[in-house]
Specification:
Length: 730
């Protein structure tokens, strides 16, 4: 108990000093201490699956506690319901529905145990920092990180049995070690590697670790799965500091990363730098409101949106490509963890606004992945194509980057998109042959979801073909983008699976869902009927009239039904049959402005923002999905959302905050002000853009990134004029 008390008293003084330092600078530079509002535990309960630990924005290293994996809710390696820690691992995923990583696990110990309990009141998590006290061993742990280096500080009780167990066997979820190696370089340095197979088929992680105290004993198993590194901690109140450099390439590069990013031993300085980096990112989109709860949710969402994509290269530019080849000295920053089926919808569009400085590197990474594996990424992890989820989600992301001016070689980008769209794999052969994907010609399920995702991706290819004056290709891909019409059953007004003879699949239950084994992906017909974000007006036409479309859309939010015993747990956050906990629903509320009922978007947006997000551990209604759930919240709290998958047309909803100031690059800011805003005043009455009356119910990307001021005038009742005229609709 003595170590715990001393450690936490010291920690309080350190963190207070850091906060005061930032506050003092705030008065001079208008730089706000925003990390104080980040609550990393949000989403660690329920089905949020978020990472908890120390990292920096887009860092390769995500250093945090790993618990015994007990099932689906431990995909990140941590769940709020658990109180047992088995180690502190350097790589984690955040918000995924599949578990992987958990590589290079360190665990301080004073006996032969490899797991200790902890009490929540002695656990602290802040951006760039994690701390916990494990009373069974009387060991206090502090963690911080840079992009490629994890820094540990362990406070041991006086003992000659102090040790750090290096666990190279343990992984998270599907991950299984296939090969490991560890060696003692000298009396303070160890190095090695871990190779594994999991969600990503082949993973290689190399490490180089240096200790602040000399190693007194080094014991490793014959397979190198477990190693015990001993230290003499007989002097009272001593600690061991460890700096662990990671690399996807080699132990030499891991050492280079370590020596470059953390040359010294000042733990407080490294944490202060991490805190500063997080504050700089959070200051790019400052929200003003009197409600602290909303600030907590908002800045935590910004924080979660910056965990990935993650850096996947060394300080010298070396990286391991999608073909397994090591590429030396790249002139761009290579990234990994592209959860594209989730993130093309909001996370990537958001990043084009507030993080323009990294978009060219994203584009370069995506194009190099194409060159190395022959197609655009689908769900890329640790240099591996997992092919997880359906469609061609790399196409919307790349098309969006092209249309927003982040891609220099547009011809190369178009070639990558067209090639990926014309492959034979993953049901594309059937799409090319029939114009849609017949359920009776496919060995796998989910044909409706696949077809709708391919249609929106094809629309994106068509937009780039048009940009490059490729008229024949434009016509071809625009026609393919209409393939969604095949699945629409006008007798039921649902998207349904169709056979090669053009008969709909029977029996049909629009509520029924079966995880990855029915006609939809993690959803049902009620949710997938609306997955036409690229051609909302075309979808309206299928219903026969705006009135019929509105009636059906209204019903989505009120009707209830039995999803069935095999429904995916991802179908969560339900309002009627609208499922906010899963991505295919995320654009749906923003379809109302297309039929002149923008006020309904405002109503639904406020409901979701205030009821389905919270600042508690169970504060997410579904998987975070690598930033998508948070990105939806951020954009929607601004009062806008990009519906079409590429191009930057943002449809208005309802701004949650009184004022948002967004740094959009090139020393420009875009300010969003909501006049007379309140919980009741959620409806837009009128709008001004740069001081002039603005009648449209949407705004384009160029207007945002050019800088300026968007003003919403709010009221307690729906406007009888705003967004109703056809010329003002998206």
């Amino acid at each position: 108990m003595k170590i715990q008390a001393k450690h936490y008293g010291y920690l309080f003084l350190f963190m207070l000093t850091t906060i005061c330092f930032i506050a003092c600078n705030t008065n001079k530079t208008e730089f706000y201490n925003l990390t104080q509002y980040v609550k990393p535990h949000i989403g660690t309960g329920g089905h949020g699956h978020v990472f908890l630990g120390a990292n920096v924005p887009r860092g390769f290293v995500q250093l945090g506690p790993t618990q015994n994996t007990r099932g689906w809710d431990w995909c990140s390696g941590y769940h709020y319901s658990d109180s047992i820690i088995v180690g502190f691992s350097h790589l984690h995923l955040s918000g995924t529905g599949i578990g992987d990583l958990g590589d290079i696990t360190f665990m301080p110990a004073t006996d032969g145990r490899r797991a200790y309990s902890f009490e929540r009141k002695f656990e602290i998590a802040k951006p760039g920092y994690y701390s916990v006290w494990m009373p069974e061993a009387d060991i206090a742990v502090e963690l911080t990180a840079t992009a490629r280096v994890g820094m540990h500080r362990y406070f041991f009780p006086p003992t000659d049995q102090a040790r750090i167990v290096v666990d190279l066997k343990r992984g998270i979820g599907w991950d299984n070690m296939t090969e490991a190696y560890i060696i003692q370089e000298n009396d303070t340095v160890i190095s090695g590697y871990r190779k594994s197979r999991g969600w990503a088929e082949h993973q290689e992680v190399y490490f180089n670790a240096i200790f602040s105290q000399p190693i007194t004993k080094f014991i490793t198993s014959s397979s190198c799965e477990f190693t015990e590194v001993f230290f003499d901690m007989t002097q009272e109140e001593e600690c061991v500091v460890v700096k662990v450099g990671l690399s996807p390439v080699s132990t030499a590069n891991a050492q280079l990363n370590r020596e470059t990013e953390i040359p010294g031993w000042n733990f407080e300085e490294v944490y202060a730098q991490a805190n500063q980096i997080w504050n700089e990112e959070l200051n790019k989109a400052v929200a003003k409101t009197k409600q602290t709860k909303y600030k907590n949710i908002y800045y935590t969402a910004l924080y979660h949106s910056l965990i990935a994509p993650s850096i996947f290269c060394d300080v010298n530019g070396d990286y391991r490509g999608a073909d397994g080849v090591v590429y030396r000295g790249a002139d761009f920053v290579n990234y990994t963890t592209f959860s594209l089926w989730d993130t093309y919808r909001a996370a990537h569009p958001l990043a084009t606004i507030i993080h323009p400085e990294v978009q060219k590197d994203y584009a370069q990474t995506i194009l190099h992945i194409f060159e190395q594996q022959g197609k655009l990424p689908v769900w890329h992890l640790m240099g591996n194509e997992t092919n997880c989820m359906v469609g061609n989600p790399g196409i919307p992301v790349l098309a969006d980057l092209v249309l927003k001016g982040f891609v220099e070689n547009k011809e190369a980008a178009y070639h990558a998109m067209k090639t990926s769209a014309m492959l034979e794999e993953r049901s594309l052969g059937s799409l090319k042959e029939y114009g849609y994907i017949p359920f009776d010609k496919e060995p796998t399920h989910e044909t409706v979801a696949k077809g709708l995702e391919y249609a929106l991706a094809d629309w994106c290819v068509a937009q780039i073909a048009k940009l490059l004056n490729k008229e024949e290709d434009y016509t071809y891909f625009m026609e393919r983008s209409k393939s969604y019409t095949y699945y629409f059953d006008k007798n039921t007004n649902f998207m349904r699976a169709l056979s090669a003879e053009k008969t709909f699949s029977e029996p049909f239950n629009p509520f029924h869902a079966a995880h990855r084994t029915n006609d939809y992906t993690e959803g049902n017909a009620w949710q997938y009927t609306w997955l036409v974000p690229h051609d909302v007006h075309g979808l309206i036409g299928l219903f026969g009239s705006e009135e019929a479309f509105i009636t059906k859309l209204d019903s989505l939010f009120t009707i209830t039904g039995d999803l069935g015993e095999h429904a995916s747990p991802d179908i969560s956050g339900l309002i009627g049959q609208y499922a906010h906990g899963n991505e295919p629903s995320h654009h749906i509320i923003y379809m109302y402005p297309f039929v002149g009922q923008q006020w309904k978007s405002a109503e639904k947006a406020r409901q979701i923002l205030t009821e389905l997000y919270d600042d508690t551990p169970d504060g997410l209604c579904g998987n975070e999905d690598v930033g998508q759930m948070s990105a939806w919240y951020i954009l929607s709290s601004w009062g806008l959302y990009q519906v079409a998958p590429a191009g930057g047309v943002y449809v208005f909803g309802s701004p949650l905050f009184d004022e948002i100031t967004v740094k959009v690059g090139n020393d420009k800011t875009f300010t969003i002000i909501a006049h007379n805003n309140s919980d009741k005043n959620k409806y837009i009455q009128r709008v001004k853009l740069n001081g002039k009356s603005y009648t449209k119910s949407y705004i384009i990307h160029e207007d945002i990134v050019s800088g300026g001021k968007l003003e919403f005038y709010m009221g307690s009742e729906p406007s009888t004029t705003f967004g109703i005229a056809e010329e003002d609709r998206p």
